[in-house]
């Protein structure tokens, strides 16, 4: 019986405590919490803006790369260069069957521009 | 319609909206959750200023957690009550006890003056009696009977079994009844 009495009393006390308007937060606390909420959101916005600005500031190298047409163009140029060297080395003397070709691909002889084009030859008109 | 007027918007949805920069969600979360956190902290600590500090700290932790929040995994209130309890425990260990703050002036016009005074006296008596309970009993009783959580929810907050919650609340209520035994008549209760 005492337990039932105590239970009823406690239920009543709990109800009084739950409806006690004095155990509500002050408007000042609510304002502080809301200010915190907005400050945290604002800090994320600042972080995002900073990250975007950092990402959009190109370095000198990035500028040069961009002027050349980006990584795609640069790799194309590099590939063409490598392919040219390869073709030259792999085919050896087969593409250059005359003596001039052999001279150019070899190391044993000196070659002059006049061998490539006669217009480079120095002509001396000597009247006899 | 503002979110704080839409009770059917779940807490975790509001938190996701908040993380996406929605300032209306910030307001809704503040209005909805701060009173709960504050009242629980006050019941645990018995000190208004301390409870305000705890409530503010718990809420700011929730806001910072928002971008990492995984919808559907945990209940926002469960997480919040757990953080609040931890913050209260830290303060209680430092203070070595529970303060008995005087509750601020009454302001309920709907009730008669006599009834209001009696209700206030009962609320204050309960607060004094709660302060005498061991911390875990006080937490379980306050979550069950003042915050209205179910036993499984309390078990999740306190990371104990439902049976342990039942045991804590039962022992807590017995201790409360004993602490209030000599005030029954003064609080308007007569046996028989």
TrEMBL record, chain A:
Name assigned to this protein: Dihydroorotate dehydrogenase
Source species of the chain: Shimia marina
TrEMBL record, chain B:
Organism superkingdom: Bacteria
Keywords per UniProt: DNA-binding, Sigma factor, Transcription, Transcription regulation
Ranges where the RNA polymerase sigma factor 70 region 4 type domain occurs: 124-176
Transmembrane annotation, as ranges: none
Sequence ranges assigned to domain RNA polymerase sigma-70 region in this UniProt record: 32-96
One function term, GO molecular function aspect: DNA binding
Example GO BP: DNA-templated transcription initiation
PANTHER family: RNA POLYMERASE ECF-TYPE SIGMA FACTO, RNA POLYMERASE SIGMA FACTOR HI_1459-RELATED
Family: Belongs to the sigma-70 factor family. ECF subfamily.
Protein's recorded name: Sigma-W factor
Organism: Shimia marina
